[in-house]
């Protein structure tokens, strides 16, 4: 099993920045890719970004492209999400996820991911 713990959420003004971390533990060798998803109140959970452990190939949702950056530190089994130029629309609970298999076609689908963290709240005020 893989355990995921997110941290770094908080309150920030529009236009500001915030960095999130996702620490993985357990059988981390079984994970090939990591993703970030978010869910706003009354909304469906949506894809934000993904990265592969080997090669560091990245994918981003159009809504965050150019503003958010996903990265990983393999030695620390940690994935990061740097969020810049934050907007009120970015307000949501952000979840970290791990996938045992990576499919280029399915990187944005939550069904591709097998393990999930508890989430961390990000609130952007206007």
Outline the structure in words.
- 0% of the residues lie in helices and 51% in strands.
- The chain has strands spanning 2-7, 10-13, 18-26, 33-39, 46-52, 58-60, 68-73, 78-83, 92-99, 115-116, 120-125.
- The strands form two sheets. Strands 2, 4, 5, 6, 9, 10 and 11 form a seven-stranded mixed β-sheet that branches.
- It is mainly β.
- It is globular.
The fraction of residues assigned to DSSP E strands is over 45%
Structural class: mainly beta
Total helices: the number is: 0
Shape: globular
Mean pLDDT: 96
Total strand segments: 11
Q: List low-pLDDT spans.
A: none
Estimated radius of gyration: 13 Å
Order of helices and strands: EEEEEEEEEEE
- Percent in helix: under 10%
For the sheet with most strands, the description reads:
7 strands, mixed
Task: Determine the N-to-C terminus distance.
Answer: 40 Å
Show the helix and strand layout:
Elements: E1 2-7, E2 10-13, E3 18-26, E4 33-39, E5 46-52, E6 58-60, E7 68-73, E8 78-83, E9 92-99, E10 115-116, E11 120-125
Parallel strand pairs: 2-11
Antiparallel strand pairs: 1-3, 3-8, 4-5, 4-9, 5-6, 7-8, 9-10, 9-11
Summarize the structure.
The chain is an all-beta fold and 126 residues long. The chain is built from no helices and eleven strands.
What are the defining features of this structure?
4-stranded antiparallel β-sheet; mainly beta; about 130 residues; single chain; 7-stranded mixed β-sheet; 11 strands
């Amino acid at each position: 099993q893989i355990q995921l713990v997110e941290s770094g959420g908080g309150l920030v003004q529009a236009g500001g920045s915030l960095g999130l971390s996702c620490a993985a533990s357990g059988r981390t060798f079984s994970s090939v890719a990591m993703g970030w998803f978010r869910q706003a109140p009354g909304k469906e959970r949506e894809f934000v970004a993904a990265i592969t452990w080997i090669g560091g190939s990245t994918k981003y949702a159009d809504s965050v492209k150019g503003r958010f950056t996903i990265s990983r530190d393999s030695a620390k089994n940690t994935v990061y999400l740097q969020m810049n130029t934050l907007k009120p629309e970015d307000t949501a609970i952000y979840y970290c996820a791990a996938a045992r298999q990576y499919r280029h076609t399915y990187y944005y689908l939550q069904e591709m991911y097998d393990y999930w963290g508890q989430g961390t709240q990000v609130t952007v005020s206007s």
